Amino acid sequence: MIFVAASINDIMNNLIFTGFVVLISIFLSRLINSLISYKRRFSKSVLWKSNLMSLAISYGIWALLIFTLGLPFGIFFPLTWHILLVVLFFGINWILGKKLRKNEMNKSLIGLEARLIERKEFLTRSDEKLRQDRILLKIQDLVTYFYTEEGIVKAVEGVSFQIYEDEVLGLVGETGCGKSVTALSILQLIRPPGEIVGGKVLFQGVDLLNDPEVVMQKYRGNQITMIFQDPLNSLNPVMKVGAQITEVFLNHKMDELYAEAAQFTQENDLVKAKKESIKQLLKQLKNEIDMTKGGLNKSGEIEYQEEVPTKEQIDTEIIANIRQKEDNLTAVLDEMVELKKKIKDLKKKGNIFAVADRWAAKIIRDVGISDPEQIVNRYPHELSGGMRQRVMIAIALSCSPKLLIADEPTTALDVTIQAQILELMKRLQKEYKTSILMITHDLGLISEICDRVAVMYSGYIVEYGSIFKLFKNPLHPYTHGLIQAIPRVEKKVENLKTIPGMVPNLIYPPSGCRFHPRCEYRFEPCDTINPVQIETEPGYFVACHLYDSKYKDLALKAREKAKNNKQEVIA
After folding, report:
1. Fewer CB in a 10 Å sphere around the end CB: N or C, the chain?
2. Is the whole model's pTM more than 0.70, yes or no?
């Protein structure tokens, strides 16, 4: 290929042609890079190698085309032209690739940014909910202690948050921070030595903790339900799945069961009335047939003749009349058999237990379990982990509750089943118009399903508000540390970032802010004064002295000190 072109015009024609080939090659290389690298979320080094490979293949195809087309005309590019074109080819692709790769890598962070942008419209909806006062559940200064021999475990300290209608609120934090205790306190399921010391739990304006007229059994399992962590231990091992679902209906939906059963009872009464009329019709038809075949005595009863007349003696019209009446009699007898079957079926359906069984089969089908008629007759140990969790969701949603508390519903499941359960909960949440309190320690799960999030640490809510704002710009040092600890696919690091220190003992918690022993920004008031929740934006709260106007100067110095310490560590 080291030849000189015949003329300038031939060179210009080749340049125009190769320009189109270069543009097509750029497009193909970017397409290959997107399909192979972005979709599979490879690292940056693999992205660069795949880009070089696709460019080399594209350039090879281009060079082969030029050589093949140049043979008939004796037109070839000199080596210097090829070198210049290679530099131009790879240069353009490198510039394009650098810009596009940055966008691709940002979008490939577990799909988080795309999901957050999609949910950005929730900020407007949240403001509307604030104005319309559509608060479903309001927790105010909830305090729950456990009185043990070693000391008092201060599990929940002054927790406050709100859940609006038709929204999903995430409650996230490390193991032992008080998430599950908060949920159990809402339902008043705290067992001794635990005790709800103070606070308010306002559900649709009714104080469930302090109102003496409140009967929790009317709320628990009906308007407020809960999915527990381990379905195998939560389900009764000696009761069939169907019986455990119907138990919920029999406890909370008796009026509805009787109402539906009454519909079948009314229909049954109509069918019975029709059956009686058909009985009369049968009797009449039999009499008419007998009267036609025989004669009547003076008392009006049928008098049968000893000798049956021959066909020649019977008029043709009489024979036709008898046959028609016999056909009618057969049809009425068949209808009577069908009515008896229908009466028997309606009698079964008119039983409230039969109605509850049908409802149980329907809710099992709704949660994505096929062949519900067989599943209702199985015991929990006969089902897989994913199916048991679906049964738990079915029990929780059976009464169409206003609030569903999901306490780490995907912890014991593999990744594939987790995704299915999350999709199921999102679908059912829209279908049943149920608000959800999602308790988990998985920020990825929070980003998938939640609208707002409350971050909990050592019994306190430290940050609380829109999920979009929290993931985009976390304010509390603990929240920032949690997000920084998430592995990044675009960065290759030897060690993941961690939050130094250990979770404090809740029997002997540190004074002041409970996070201050592990906080890199701590300053003078942190170890003595407990921070209060500060509303930095409408509907967004953080409990940290860094954002308290009283300590503005001290907070600025703490930030500068932390920044200098980071620079020293890097150096």
Report:
1. C
2. no
